[in-house]
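Hi C.,

You asked whether I'd gotten around to modeling the 522-residue construct. I have! Everything is below, sequence then structure, no commentary in between.
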Amino acid sequence: MSQHEQQGPSGGVLIVDFGAQYCQLIARRVRELSVYSRITVPERAMFTFQHMRPQAVILSGGPRSVYEHDAPQLDSKILEQGVPVLGICYGLQWMSQHTGGEVTPAKEGAEYGRTELQVMDAQDLLAGVRQNGIVWMSHGDKVARLGPGFQVLAKSEPCPFAVVADRKRRFFGLQFHPEVAHTQDGGTMLKNFVLGVARCSTNWNPGNLVDTKIAAVEQLVGEQGEVVMGLSGGVDSSVAAVLIHRAIGKRLHCVFVDNGLLRAGEREGVESLFRDHYHMDLKVVDASERFLGELAGVSDPERKRKIIGKVFVDVFRDEAKRSVHAKFLGQGTLYPDVIESVAAHGGATSTIKSHHNVGGLPKDLDLTLVEPLRDLFKDEVRALGRELGLPSSLVDRQPFPGPGLAVRCLGDVTRAKLEPLRGADRIVREEVEQNGLHKGLWQYFAVYVPQKTVGVKGDARVYEDVCVLRLVSSQDAMTADWELLPTPVLKRISNRILNEVKVFSRVCLDISSKPPATIEWE
């Protein structure tokens, strides 16, 4: 089965990914309505449709032009299955092309960014949508002519076919993106389509999946099978480990690799929770010297990520081979990992950074994957973790990048930088969490910038590096806004870092949103 086609309940919404930057946002928006959604590639759409039997289909946007000879290929029989279809941007253009319409380059009619939607027919799809509300456009082609049976529900300047419909066949199209936050009533439109037009079953609740997930692991591993798993202590691997442990007990063998790039107290916390509390078989491997040795002199962020991923695989391979009876490999892979790493028509939809937990496993391990979270988003994993009874300090913790502090330490990675960075990060976490401010933040951390600036300490001139504070809010990490802490808290963080950590003469605040910046600095 394709990596895009995850096991899940029948029904729901099938989303065909034409290479859209925000395809997984569509899937998330649908699941937020308590409706199951699944993403597939165009070439596999009909196969997946027959397997899934969805109640509706959504065709995503995409970067190509439908009239190009190498445009993504989707079997037009998807339009003959008797279920409602919603085309978004490229999806609308594809649907128009296959229903007797015409698509041409937009030329003067191209639209990018915010524009006002002029609603002409406020029924079904547009019920409750405000007049002249803001929508997010991003298209260089246009529908020049609609096919038979279609009518215009809304327009914008200069797009005469912003929202169209063939109500008899229950085909709808939007020339903008309802899934992004910039579209004011986008959620209402998706809700109108999924619950109103398609009448999809609202039976998706990730918190109620515990028994189903445990049973699936039991069935896959069997009564005698053993699983070896790399445990990072993050939300994903922790929830996956507890699920697998519930299913097979001591036949799960966890390996925690200390790469020397962890936050303060990380290793001790993992040992206490999983070995002492959950009584798991846990092996701790201190490979910090090996990681730092391989990273010596490397400053390019992508090289850092690849080196860390490779060394982790090498270390884990050595340990996994010690579990001679283990024929299965447990992983905390999530749905976004799969979507971003293995995207539509052979390339990455939006591979901004490497994922070290997808596709990098050594073939000589010859292990069958056990990935109980592979069809879930991060917030759904948290809900599952709560249902499993994991402590909120773990379930609700901020995400921590796989390469660890290496991508928050600009330039080459050395112990001389890591120790002060660890200290600054500890101070940020302590102050944010002790003041109860973490609940409104997605991530909050420190960054080491090796840029010398002049300062004064003890009446003497110093020339030391910069510590940057990164505080962001987000729902899904696809987009993020920078946030401010109360001034007294910011003052205390700054004072503590400058007094307790000896290598910084300046503390700065990153006030960049995503996009254009990313959340992590590297």
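If it helps when you're writing up: The first helix runs from residue 23 to 31.

Thanks,
B.
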